[in-house]
């Protein structure tokens, strides 16, 4: 782990412990923005964007980190001192954040097309509208950080991150290169549906 990133993690952990007794959103998210950004757009490579993500999904993810049931490169990613109510406050902060996620550059169009074909057959049931919507408690995937998505596919394949039942069905028999193509597909999408005339397709409610 790079020295600069390690120092950021140490500082963030110290902030988290110091603010664990607060209920103010701006105070609670201070440890988070070191990597996830003030508006939920990640500033650290390989870190997920949180802006616009579904609040219930964020709460569940943080609970799993707090219980050490989900792997993380960050020690004590979510300190045990944080209550469920505080996690809900953090989740709502990022879920309602308005920002534009950057898109990766230089992705091979053929790879995106390959990912789109796999998405149509394997992923659309839980991640419809090119990952801009959600079903069955799945997270929103469109315009997510590419390095993060690639790392998660490797974690699932290596057994470091547990499959939900439907994820197990979706991933079955797919090679790592195919999973990577799906990651490229999701990362290349617009977070919100393109504007058509004066209408914009809405995202699902965040709570």
From TrEMBL:
Keyword presence, Iron: yes
Signal peptide: 1-20
The keyword Transport is annotated on this UniProt entry: yes
PROSITE patterns associated with the record: CYTC
Domain spans labelled Cytochrome c: 20-98
SUPFAM superfamilies for the chain: Cytochrome c (SSF46626)
Keywords recorded for this protein, A-Z: Electron transport, Heme, Iron, Metal-binding, Signal, Transport
Identification of the protein by name: Cytochrome c domain-containing protein
């Amino acid at each position: 782990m790079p020295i600069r990133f390690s120092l950021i993690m140490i500082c963030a952990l110290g902030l988290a412990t110091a603010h664990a007794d607060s209920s103010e959103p701006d105070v609670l998210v201070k440890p988070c923005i070191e990597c996830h950004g003030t508006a939920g757009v990640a500033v650290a490579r390989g870190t997920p964007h949180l802006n616009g993500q579904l609040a219930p999904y964020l709460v569940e993810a943080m609970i799993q980190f707090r219980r050490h049931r989900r792997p993380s490169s960050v020690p004590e990613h979510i300190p045990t001192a944080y209550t469920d109510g505080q996690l809900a406050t953090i989740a709502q902060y990022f879920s309602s954040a308005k920002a534009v996620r950057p898109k990766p550059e230089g992705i091979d169009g053929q790879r995106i097309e390959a990912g789109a074909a796999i998405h149509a057959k394997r992923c659309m049931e839980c991640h419809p509208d090119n990952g801009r919507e959600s079903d069955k408690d799945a997270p929103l995937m469109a315009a997510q950080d590419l390095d993060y998505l690639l790392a998660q596919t490797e974690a699932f394949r290596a057994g470091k991150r547990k499959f939900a039942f439907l994820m197990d069905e979706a991933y079955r028999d797919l090679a790592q290169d195919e999973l990577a193509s799906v990651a490229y597909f999701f990362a290349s999408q617009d977070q919100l549906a393109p504007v058509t005339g004066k209408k914009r397709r809405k995202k699902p409610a965040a709570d």
